[in-house]
From TrEMBL:
Belongs to the type I cytokine receptor family. Type 3 subfamily. PROSITE patterns: FN3 (PS50853), IG_LIKE (PS50835). One of its GO terms (biological process) is negative regulation of neuron apoptotic process. It is found in: Secreted. It comes from the Eukaryota. GO terms for molecular function: cytokine binding; cytokine receptor activity. Residues 10-85 form the Ig-like domain. GO terms for cellular component: CRLF-CLCF1 complex; external side of plasma membrane; receptor complex. The gene is Crlf1. Keywords: Disulfide bond, Glycoprotein, Immunoglobulin domain, Phosphoprotein, Receptor, Repeat, Secreted, Signal. It holds the Pfam family EpoR_lig-bind. Residues 106-201, 206-334 form the Fibronectin type-III domain. This is Cytokine receptor-like factor 1.
Length: 399
């Protein structure tokens, strides 16, 4: 028997690892090395593990077998479809990756924002169709409009699949040109250039130190107070605020706007554009607003967000921050007794409110600063409490 060199490849596939457009046809050949005693009739083909029909084969010589593939679909995986030549016993002789897809489309809808004027994050869409069936690289590039060289963003996927973050070394009062390049095995596509000034796309952290409290014994009102963005304390800007709130057993948020005036060093003053019965308090360096027309004896969750605009006279509308963590408070219980109320129901209501007060006292004392955790615990505890009362009532009833 013929000796086989350990380094010899059993067979060679041609073309090796081709890139093709969707709908293309391909004829591939598998040629067995002379060091292996295999003939064309000893071979067969698979594509992604599925055996291809013998009708698509043709023997092109004693040890060469071809396969014809027509109207190829996009690759099932971005690493390429596996076209493999096998020996009769199933052994793998050679393999090739087929990259079948489309050239990239021009990226669109580039939007950018700067957190506290310290960085820049941009996101985009991959095009009208998006799917190329091939691994596609996206590169965000930027440069000052009148100076210098192209720069390439390095931190991708920071705000989603198609996004990039530029952490530092950005200039103010200077327009930037920003664009995205998409490339894959079949080509390159470049987006339109977006022009922006950092001052025009500023957003900030959510308002800090949000406090919600009762307004004396007013059963339909709550007072909301917060601080203006501390990161912008050294900049001249205007601020708008929005407050959203919801009842404890509802997932629907109601939004109220709060217009602001010029602010520097954390000063933000303005009026709440709310219901006629609602009142605005001016608290110096803090902003505040009263929510009126609320339900007595009800727990409300409140959030605030900020829009810094007209920074150093910028003409752009500004970008809203994320919402602050929810803060909870309850309106005082009404002293009026509704006619026809079940006394037992009233007693149960009093007990429930006492337990609510105890719960929020515990949260304030033991879980301060963990508002998300506290509210999640409260929601779970509230459901359990309601079930407990319901079970107790059913068991206590006489048939």
């Amino acid at each position: 028997p013929r000796s086989v060199s350990p380094a010899a490849d059993p067979a060679v596939i041609s073309p090796q690892d081709p890139t093709l457009l969707i709908g293309s046809s391909l004829v591939a050949t598998c040629t067995v090395s002379p060091d292996f005693p295999l003939r064309a009739e000893d071979l067969y083909w698979t594509l992604n593990g599925r055996r291809l029909p013998a009708a698509s084969y043709a023997a092109l010589g004693p040890s060469t077998l071809s396969v014809a593939l027509a109207r190829l679909n996009g690759s099932r995986q971005q690493s390429g479809d596996n076209l493999v030549c096998h020996s009769r016993d199933g052994g793998i002789l050679a393999g090739s990756c087929l990259y079948v897809g489309l050239p990239p489309e021009k990226p669109v809808n580039i939007t950018c924002w700067s957190k506290n004027m310290k960085d820049l994050t941009c996101k985009w869409a991959p095009g009208t169709e998006g799917e190329t069936f091939l691994h596609t690289n996206y590169t965000l590039k930027y440069k000052r409009r009148w100076y210098g060289q192209d720069n390439t963003c390095q931190e991708y996927h920071t705000a989603g699949t198609y996004s990039c973050h530029i952490p530092k070394d950005l200039a103010l009062f200077t327009p930037y040109e920003i664009w995205v390049e998409a490339s894959n095995r079949l080509g390159v596509a470049v987006s339109d250039v977006v022009m922006l000034d950092i001052l025009d796309v500023v957003t900030t952290d959510p308002p800090s130190d949000v406090h919600v409290s009762r307004v004396g014994d007013l059963e339909d009102q709550l007072s909301v107070r917060w601080s203006s963005p501390p990161a912008l304390k050294d900049f001249l800007f205007q601020a708008k605020y929005q407050i959203q709130y919801r009842v404890e057993d509802s997932s629907e948020w109601k939004v109220r706007g709060h217009g602001g005036g010029t602010a520097r060093g954390g000063r933000g003053r303005g009026r709440c554009h709310l219901l006629p019965r609602q009142v605005v308090d001016d608290v110096g360096n803090q902003t505040s607003c009263r929510l009126a027309g609320l339900r007595p004896g009800t727990v409300y969750f409140v959030q605030v967000r900020c829009n810094p605009f007209s920074i150093y006279g910028s003409k752009k509308a500004g970008i809203w921050s994320d919402w602050s963590n929810p803060t909870a408070a309850s309106t005082p219980r009404s002293e009026r007794v509704a006619g026809g109320c079940d006394p037992k129901g009233g007693e149960q209501n009093t007990t429930l409110r006492r337990e609510l007060k105890q719960f929020f006292g515990w949260v304030k004392k033991h879980a301060y600063g963990c508002s998300n955790l506290g509210i999640k615990l409260y929601d779970q505890w509230r459901v359990w409490l309601q079930k407990s009362h319901k079970t107790r009532n059913q068991v206590g009833k006489e048939p």
